Structure prediction request, 208 residues.
Amino acid sequence: MKIITIPPRGFGSNTYLLTRDNQTAVVIDPSQPRVAEELAKRGLIAKYVLLTHCHYDHVGGVATLQKTGARVFCSEKEKPLVGTRADLFELFGAPRDPFTVDETLSDNQTVELCGITFKTLLTAGHTAGSASYLVEEKDGGRYLFTGDTLFSDSIGRTDFPTGDMGVMRESLKRLVELEGDMPVYAGHNEETTLEQERRYNPFLADLY
Prediction:
């Protein structure tokens, strides 16, 4: 499996392209329309979009990919927030390009997309339906995509609509108690590891 990070231009989130066959891809949080161009440059076709949550800086490129045939997934608790004021488009004055959610995922649900197995972990707190995705490979490799729940040396904000610090702390505890170490791909900032965050993230000091 190959993981390609597409950093944003201007304000936006990190976008992740995951492919096993170098032809089809799962896109996590396509933050900007130009993600379609990045896929084309690499000869990849987006078959699926996985959303960690619906904030505008994570979903700005979803409609573009959906128009090319990609199916859009998010957690069952986040879907009701899509297209509402909770997505922050209006708050930040960003133009909304509407999209629909094709399928929802429940906590601990496992789904195979493009030959890659994803386990959904509901990690609310940043939003009511925020999700993280755990990829576990047959060779033992494990990779965690945390959206705006856990960052390198920080965590996501909880002062936006449906955010809740108490719930966020429960979600962070769930993540730090995952077995072993693995790379962490967050919505913002650089890649980190779970062990790095256990040791040095000040927001996790009393959770592990």
